[in-house]
Amino acid sequence: MYNSRVFCIMLTLTLAISMVFNAAGAVDQISLSTSSDIYYDGDYVVVFGSVNTIFENMPITIQIFHGSNLVDVAQVSVAKDGTFVKSFNAVGQQWKEEGTYIIRVQYTPTQIGEITFEFFSQVIDKSSAVFPVNIPNSGTFDVGYTIRGGEVESIIMNQRDQEYERYSILVGTTMNSNGNLILKLPRESFDAQSNGKDITFIVLISKEDSIAGVDLHQTATRLNYVQVEYEEIGTGVDYRTIRIPLEEGDQWIEVIGTYIIPEFGSVVIIILVVAVSSAIIISKSRFSVRYT
To answer: Lowest-pLDDT range, 81-85, 150-154, 170-174, 233-237?
Structure first.
């Protein structure tokens, strides 16, 4: 009889705790961010976050993964206002692999948040900066970038077709070796969406250099454009971050979206199918698709 009562009490307590956690999880989400989207060997990865419901003396667990490998872990106290912060030093054998890392944060069984960042070994052939992109007759907006294997010479807002007002971002580069280009694109200025949902950008690359009497900023005069695959390494409310693989000798990278900044006078929807299908020829390129 006594054992039955103990069992009932324990069961009731377990169900009550579970209900509290489930109720909290139903209305709460973990807010999560990092101090940067890209880190290098020796950097400090700083993780910020907040929770709406606070449980006294309950720490939050922060784990960093590369693939299925656990790179680092820590338990952090949550402040009275629901915020938390933790820095991780990106050094040692666990940080030897380059690529996308996942930060996984858990507070209760139902409150779990994730965010990603890119990690690279510190090398001499990389540079990072914010490039101001000119808006014709209106001002500028900033595009953040990191390039490995070369230099970014220019970034412009390009009008691909005057009749249909199709626009893209055109990046001029000097690539001395194989590498990659990471672009942090501000959603309010440039994006790719359909019916309010994210869709893929179109990314084209050309090795054509400037030639006398030809303006390569005009689509009609650029030759041998190749469509390439890219990786979206960060997606947030304000930015989309993409990584584009580059080869030695690549000169121009064009990123085509569906949204143009309001300062142009209207919000223009680029018909991606038309952009992709125009003047396609089969070639022996990296992806067997060339644009003229």
So the answer is: 233-237
For the segment 161-205, what is each residue's pLDDT rounded down to a tens digit? 555 455 789 999 999 888 889 999 999 888 888 888 999 999 999
Q: Are 105 and 32 in contact (CB under 8 A)?
A: yes
Q: How many helices (H) and strands (E) does the chain have?
A: 2, 22
Cα of first residue to Cα of last residue in the chain, in angstroms, is 85
* Spatial separation of the C-alpha atoms in residues 140 and 166, rounded to whole Å: 18
SS (H, E, C) 185-217: EECCCEECEECCEECCCEEEEECCCCCCCCCCC
pLDDT tens digit string along 243-264? 999 988 999 999 998 765 554 4
The pTM assigned to this predicted structure is: 0.55
In sequence order, what are the residues at sequence separation of 6 or more whose Cβ sits closer than 8 angstroms to the Cβ of residue 21?
A: 108, 109, 110
Pair 45, 34: CB distance under 8 Å: yes
Q: What share of the chain is helix, strand, coil (3-state, %, to 5)?
A: 15, 50, 35
The full set of domain ranges for the chain reads 24-120, 126-291
CB-CB contact of 125 with 131 (8 Å): no
Q: Does CATH place domain 24-120 in 2.60.40.1930?
A: yes
Q: What is the dihedral of CA 8, 9, 13, 15, to 10 degrees?
A: 10
Spatial contact of 86 and 105, defined as CB atoms under 8 Å apart:
no
